[in-house]
Design brief:
about 120 residues, alpha+beta, 6-stranded mixed β-sheet, globular, ribosomal large subunit binding, Ribosomal silencing factor RsfS, translation regulation, cytoplasm, Iojap/RsfS/C7orf30
Length: about 120
């Protein structure tokens, strides 16, 4: 993994989130780079999906664990943990979206940020 001194903090957090998703076999992992978009609300969106609410929750827990272990930072805000259909972990400059498969297709977050640079990652 790239050291935080080499890259900026939001890039590092996004990479930690991706690692947490890979650990729990998240599907179709992508990172949207929003830094060059004027109206963006964050530097990065990190997105994946899973087939069950149980796996969605496990991925969210893994992401939180990876980020806390590396930089002792909890999300500023969390949404959706109760139902596990779309969990959002807000780290201010990095927003992590973990969807149940059908919800990802329905909301199409990637399509809303069509100008973003999108990088895909393999599941572990």
């Amino acid at each position: 993994m790239v050291k935080s001194k080499v890259i900026n903090e939001s890039t590092y957090i996004s990479e930690l989130a991706i690692h947490g998703m890979q650990e729990k076999k998240g599907n179709e992992l992508v990172r949207l780079d929003l830094r060059n978009i004027k109206s963006s609300v964050a530097d990065y969106f990190v997105i994946c999906h899973a087939d069950s609410a149980t796996q969605v929750k496990a991925i969210a827990h893994s992401v939180e664990e990876e980020i806390y272990k590396a930089i002792q930072q909890d999300p500023w805000r969390k949404e959706g943990l109760e139902y596990g259909e779309w969990i959002l972990l807000d780290y201010i400059d990095v927003v992590v979206h973990i969807f149940r498969t059908d919800k990802r297709e329905f909301y199409g977050v990637e399509d809303l940020w069509g100008d973003a640079e999108i990088k895909s990652y393999k599941s572990a």
